[in-house]
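Researcher: Let's continue the batch. This sequence belongs to SnoaL-like domain-containing protein, and it's 144 residues. Same format as the previous ones, please.
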Amino acid sequence: MSAEEVAQPVLRERQSRDRGWYEEMAACFTEDSVVKMSRFSGSGAGFVRATRDMADRGDLAVHHPGPPTVGIDQDRAPMELPLVIERRIDVDGVEADIASACRSQYRAQHGADGVWRIVRITMTWLHESRTPATTAGGREDRFV
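Model: Same format as before. Here are the C-alpha cells for SnoaL-like domain-containing protein:
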C-alpha cells in the first residue's frame, strides 16, 4: 500500500465536493464516518447532504489542497492535508474574496473490499484573508 493510494479518497472527496459530484463524494466515506469542522459536525453522509444544500443556496467554494502527509499502519492511515478554501462573499454590499487557510486531519481505513475510505475528518483553521473582488467576471466565472 502506497501513500498515494491512501491519499486518493481524500483528494477525490475534495474534488467531488467542488465539482458537485455528490455520489462520488459519498463513496469516499465509511458508513460510520465522523466529520468535525467549524461549520459542520456529524456523519460523512450528513456532510455530503450539507454540502449539496450549501451549493443549492449558491454558497460555493473552491478547495486548493497542498501535498498530503500520509502515515500507514496496516489497514489504517492518518493523513494531514494543508488546504486553502476560496469563497466569494458579500461585505456590506461589496463582493469580496475570502481565502481560508487550514490544516485538515483525516483518518482513512482500508476496507475488506480493498478500498481506502475516510473514517474521520477534523480541521484546524489557521487564518483568513479578505480582499475586494476586482475580477471582470462574475461569481460563476470564478467558482466553476
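Researcher: Any comment?
Model: Strands lie at 29-36, 41-43, 61-65, 69-70, 76-91, 94-110, 116-132.
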